[in-house]
Design a protein that fits this description.
Rossmann fold, binds adenosine-5'-triphosphate, 25% strand
Length: 210
């Protein structure tokens, strides 16, 4: 099936069960994962990214658009992730940050610049390519981080509390933008959050860990 599927996923640490999850996220849908601190939310995201620390053991399968990717190295997985912090490269311009996300297959200066310009325009930041990321507001940084990740053409999107540092008004605005851009591309989204309002805004199913 298209989308992200976790089949009988079980993660243990020193033999102790931490995460057990069965889930299917269709293209354009969101699954919210909630649970107390330490319940394994970030560990679950690492398992999907392929970056699970060696102290954990995992069984079960991860499927992406019908391909089983459980043992694929992280760089081969077309999975995008946004963290609590935007993690923009401070030594690159906004455009440089965006170009970093572009696949190598997009060749030629003009073609790459056009993709970057279109991505900026898509989130209302036309003309921002030469700006220093340090001069952006929190909401603008969040939009750049989103588009850098989407320019890499992921097949699924993982969100590790990316709205938690934004204040209430901005939070709703950025959240809507992330979900809308993901829906427009038909991406399955797995959202980790402590906030019931985030999960409600996502509109999909909610699972609780722990
Ligand atoms: N690299 C690691 N090696 C061993 N144990 C780890 C490692 N990383 C996390 N843990 C432990 O695994 C458990 C789950 O951690 P995880 O970060 O997945 O929780 P979380 O639900 O994301 O928590 P929070 O909401 O606080 O971010 C915790 O008990 C944590 O201490």
């Amino acid at each position: 099936m298209a989308g992200l599927r976790l089949e009988g996923l079980r993660i243990t640490r020193a033999g102790v069960p931490l995460v057990a999850l069965e889930a299917e996220i269709a293209p354009g849908e969101v699954l919210s994962v909630m649970g107390p601190s330490g319940s394994g939310k970030s560990t679950l995201l690492s398992a999907i990214m392929g970056t699970l620390a060696p102290s954990f053991a995992m069984t079960g399968l991860v499927w992406l658009d019908g391909c089983e990717i459980t043992r694929q190295p992280p760089e081969a997985r077309r999975v995008g992730i946004l963290y609590q912090e935007e993690l923009l490269f401070p030594h690159l311009s906004v455009g440089g940050n965006l170009a970093f996300g572009l696949p190598r297959a997009v060749r030629g200066r003009a073609a790459r610049a056009a993709r970057v310009a279109a991505a900026l325009a898509e989130v209302g930041l036309a003309g921002f390519a030469d700006r220093d990321p340090a001069t952006l507001s929190g909401g603008q940084k969040a939009r750049v981080a989103l588009m850098r990740m989407l320019l890499a053409e992921p097949l699924a999107l993982l969100l590790d509390e990316p709205f938690s540092r934004l204040d209430a008004g901005l939070r709703a605005q950025v959240r809507e933008m992330v979900f809308a851009r993901a829906r427009a591309r038909g991406l399955p989204v797995l959202l980790v959050t402590h906030d019931a309002a985030d999960a409600a805004a996502a509109g999909g199913c909610v699972v609780e860990l722990g």
